[in-house]
């Protein structure tokens, strides 16, 4: 780089700004991760590197000031319906930790075919053989958890995983039935709740799972990267095994994981998150209403119906047709929505789109519906 | 928990405060991680979960808005003196990634005996055999890198590691000589620069290493958790290998690593960090001055002399004697310093203490020296 180009780049770094900050947010990755005012305050209070560690005595999750210990060892297990909880860098890192602790390279695991890509990548990092339970295909893509049974019988898996809901269609599967199956066949069972923990009521114990995974930045009103992992007590000695050389340090956590701001935002937002899951039925009816309105405009909702989650996936042939004849191609939609104060559909994509109704209220969603109508009219 | 106890706990979470925020900070873990004003602004701007990912096209480090791509692929490699760089959750996670990619369970690696505990835990997580290069022992604890040679000859290690400086004594070893040795014996060489990258000039290429690791929260004015990893191009296909199923996704990063606020603070602070390393000689002379003043008061500096880093370790028999006869035991020192506006010595510890002169200026360090004198006087 020339000196001049470098100066320009450095100047840009010192003044980073986010274009979408104050728009109506429909981005599935973001609607459950928006900070509370308490979290914003905590972010500045503990922004400096390692400032959560002032009173560390060797174990991050045992720090009493700020009250990480009480949060991780009392409040969080109760919330997750588990016996033991810990902090991680995210849902994917939680899943990797469990795989790496329980399953040996070459062994098989069984997962739903609507799993997040990181489940596959985590398994690849450990060297595992992944077997996928098929889904019902277009248009609902449902998982029937009974289909785990023959695969378990034939493959002696070391772990089964269910993504609930899945992140692509927002389908909710019968996690509890899979809990019975896993117990019957004595296979450890992990629920990926990246889009449920913090949005809706979910309990590892009620499901009958061995592990539950949540995402702070996706669904617990936290900064990224941030995750939680809950488990039955019987797995503690395996997944949270201590170092032989440093008996205070947990090997899978490399001593400590989330030593900073994401943890502090998770904690600061938690009282709000704990309360908001009580209003899940309102979220579901809002999503269903929005979906039926969009269908009335000619979009087709994929995934299960009636829908039971705020993650929605629509086919949009009308938008795709427009993208074929405008200069901006698929980006016309991003541009049109942004001009109307709306953000969250993947820029450039029009054939089908995902969105989440979690953060917007009905008034804002009505604005979104009007925007869709007005865009369709403009290009008709 | 009773309802009442729970309400109290939740209330505490919604109002998290840091006691040490505005004190003179001597905490070795923290003095290099204090945020710039630009980083504080960016923290709020991108505080919401996953808000750095607005324009992601599948690879975190290729996002152009905010300019992560330019930062990770141009600016950072130049800064680290490497060909390829990536973002991680921290120095320990960088080291684990390299070990996990290059070394098989049961293989040996050689590390300095002043390594951070996480080097041992990361090796344990991969299942490696660790061989340590001895140090010179009390009082300097120096590493002579020539002592790697016989150990390399006898053990055919798959990796050598040097912690430079070490985090306990702040000793700087001859990293460049070890580069020659590693090249001669064709062993991959990783430098743990958690306390150098972002504080002082350091270049992987000049050292002749294969990998360099840095810590955002420890030494690059960032929120935690946050790290960088630089490497020679020849290691890219191994350490940053792509998933067979998802060709955009790097396996060791589980797709993406630092998807949030710590990355954004690292970027926002970077122009300042890049500039501050030019003043390293002033940092060193400040540390030497402070050390000689403390020695004048009867404390004994451990580690190499003259010292070449802001991390300082002192034996403090005078404080220890006091701790034996006061009610607060070792905590008297924490309390006395805090009352004088000073923070950073491990609470409860008096026999020896570590501190860092990096963040405090000479005026503030004079206040610290006066405080030490006044405490000694008070209890004499």
Estimate the global geometry of chain A from the Cα principal axes. globular
Low-confidence stretches of chain A: none
| DSSP strand tally of chain A | 12
- What is the assembly state of the chains in this entry? homodimer
Q: What is the CA-CA span between the terminal residues of chain A?
A: 47 Å
Number of helices of chain A: 15
Query: Helix- and strand-based class of chain A?
Result: alpha/beta
H/E element order of chain A: HEHHEHEHEHEHEHEHEHHHEEHHEEH
Largest interface, with counts of residues having CB < 8 Å to the other chain, equals: A-B, 96 and 95 residues
State Rg of chain A.
Answer: 22 Å
Query: Averaged pLDDT of chain A, please?
Result: 97
Specify the helix fraction band of chain A.
Answer: 25-40%
- Proportion of residues in extended strands of chain A: 5-15%
Strand order of the largest sheet of chain A: 2-8-7-6-5-3-4
Summarize the biggest pleated sheet of chain A. Answer: 7 strands, mixed
List keywords for this structure.
homodimer, 380 residues, alpha/beta, seven-stranded mixed beta sheet, three-stranded antiparallel beta sheet, 15 helices, globular
